[in-house]
Write a structure and sequence with these properties.
This protein has five helices and five strands, in the order βααββαβαβα. It is globular, with a radius of gyration of 16 Å.
Length: 159
């Protein structure tokens, strides 16, 4: 496998990150049916993501192999509600984790998760969160194998 390096995304990476988001939207649409499949949705989400990350001391971290962006991870530093004890109230959050379909199963997701751990520890924090669609069993297995455990369940009801 070609060596994979990590770096922070730059504005010039917008198209490549948007393409990864689009791939994820299409993949998740097959799992849950409520995702838009059009490219415009990915472009809109990219803008939302960058705005959210800029407000939350965040960034997009890219995995690059052979000069090609093969993975992306949104990461931010966040704070829970006042009822959470001080030692873990502030935490890191993986907002998005996307690995190009051709590169899955090669440890890139693990590499990005290790970077999220590093960034969380570097900020002096002790807790890292990540969300996953209940239908995305492969991702959940990966996250559990990495040491994540269930913390909150969000339930949905169609009306």
């Amino acid at each position: 496998m070609a060596p994979v390096t990590l770096r922070t995304a730059l504005p010039a990476d917008r198209d490549a990150v948007t393409e990864l988001i689009h791939q994820l939207n299409v993949f998740e649409a097959d799992l849950v049916g409520d995702r838009r499949r059009d490219y415009a949705a990915a472009a809109e989400y990219y803008d939302e993501l960058m705005q959210r990350l800029s407000r939350r001391n965040g960034r997009v971290v890219l995995a690059v192999a052979e000069g090609v962006i093969v993975g992306a991870m949104g990461f931010s530093l966040d704070q829970d509600a006042a009822y959470v004890v001080d030692g873990v109230r502030n935490h890191g959050t993986v907002t998005d984790l996307i690995v190009h379909g051709d590169w899955r199963g090669r440890g890139i997701g693990q590499m990005l998760l290790k970077e999220a751990e590093r960034l969380t520890k570097e900020a002096g924090l002790k807790r890292l969160f990540i969300g996953v669609l209940a239908a995305n069993e492969r991702a959940e297995r990966t996250y559990r194998a990495f040491g994540f455990e269930p913390y909150v369940s969000i339930l949905s009801k169609e009306l």
